[in-house]
Amino acid sequence: MLSTPWVSFKEHLYLFNFIGAILTLMGLFLLIPLIPLWLLDEGGPEGISVWTFLVPACFAIISGLAIQRGFSYQTPSIRDAMIITALGWILVCFLGAIPYQLGLHKSFIDALFESVSGFTTTGITVFEGLDTMPGSILFWRSFTQWLGGLGILSFFILVSFRGGSAAAALFSAEGHKISISRPVPGIFNTMKILWGLYILFTISSFLCFLAAGMTLFDALNHCFTCISTGGFSTHDASLAYWSQNQYPHAWLIEYIAVLFMLAGGISFLVHFKVITGDIKALFTGFEIRFYWLIAGGALLLVCLDHCKVFAETQTWDVKTLHHLFRSALFQVSSLLTSTGYLTTNINDPFFPPLSKQIFLALMITGGCVGSTAGGLKVLRIGLLARLFAVQLQRISLPRAAVVPLLLSGKVISSAEIERVAALFWIWMTIIVGGAFATTAFSDLGPWQGLSGMASAMGNMGPFYFSVHEMVSLHWVIKLTYILGMLAGRLEIIPLAVLFGTILRRR
Question: pLDDT tens digits, residue range 29-77?
């Protein structure tokens, strides 16, 4: 008689049907960088080989089709959908790392780190010398962030036409673990609207960057990494490259980036309402008002902090004030939305200690639920703040009094409150644990270690030490950050379900 674990395992073999389909789709994606490789004429003896992308593409397509044919399709439960999500993301990141190994001869851990950072739209890089790197590799880095912006599985749902309860389960597993409305009934229709808006913003930012003076290649890469709030750039100096090289419209490029970063940090449900005529949706609703309040408050504090510290040493004129406003606005927008672009390094003395603390708080907060931004999300931070206010209110009322927690006129259930509180606790625990690992295996200070793990967990990018120091970190730290980036992007639960399932099988 078959043992219970084996019977249970057989009942879940259908999961491989989804894994095979995801691998096949990933293989097709890996063929796309062959276009810039050919257009930029990089396939010669001095360039990178076409096999850099063909090898992983062929492997993914052939193995994916074989696996998909070998296992039948079945609608997954929420638990199984979370396992599919976690496994799918891990396999995609492993495949995405192969071009960095073959084309750049990077170590396995560095290649995997860059791939995970790309797909999770974190933007932390362990690559130096971006300005001289092959264009096809730069394109692949940017393209992975664009794919990860709305979620790999959401695109899989869209192109595979897998609607119904299967799509709903996968969308719930990959999406943000909090109740949000959909723009229209039906998960497949929702996916079409979300990706339609996403593509519209991508094309719009491409045209704006091109009009502002970027080259065609730079505009293409940055339109991928801006609306996805990923932050990868084609230059080591990030968006400071244009001002450093005296481009006449560098300031315009920065303001365009701010516009689309802030758009990426807003819920796409809000964008849908605005496009369908409800302009007031940009300023009504608890989360969006709190979002603008955080952005405006942080901008004001950073500007005042700089003015206070440099009051006696700085020559104040219109040009200086504009530079301060522009730099502060850019970095506040970049960090609140988890994009991670830089025009002034956050380690620079230009930003005094208070500003650096504000930036760290923004890195943990992140953007809105239903956006491409990382972090804990504005709605959750606001919910916990409102919960504290409710607790204070209950102190002055009779014990029998019922004081519900209201957001935008809706009562938040106790189950939702418990879920948010639990997520906040485990989120902060992982950040602290990662900071411990960073300082234990490096000579970085506690402030630097905390910023590094907060950046990884919040899918942010910037941190309070140099990229060169990041490159030279111990593999244990890099692996910790890899797990942190995946946990932050998937919001912990799918990875916890996967690892819990594996441990129970032993």
Answer: 999 999 999 998 876 555 688 899 999 999 999 999 999 888 887 777 7
Look at residue 60 and tell me if it is in a domain.
Answer: no
At residue 232, what is the residue type? Answer: F
Return the closest-CA partner of residue 427 out of 359, 490, 358, 367. Answer: 490
Q: Give me the number of domains the chain comprises.
A: 1
- Is 303 within a domain? no
Radius of gyration (C-alpha) of the chain in whole angstroms: 23
Instruction: Please tell me the distance from the alpha carbon of residue 288 to that of residue 300, in angstroms, as a whole number.
Output: 18
pLDDT tens, position by position, 91-143: 999 999 999 999 999 999 999 999 999 999 998 999 999 999 999 999 999 99
Whole-number Å distance between alpha carbons of 140 and 137: 5
The token pair that represents 230 in the structure block: 């990923």
Domain boundaries, position 461: 414-505
Q: Is residue 472 included in any domain, yes or no? A: yes
- pLDDT tens, residue by residue, 342-372: 999 888 889 999 999 999 999 989 889 888 8
Asked if residue 453 is part of any domain, the answer here is yes
| Nearest one of 441, 426, 439, 481 to 457, comparing CA atoms | 481
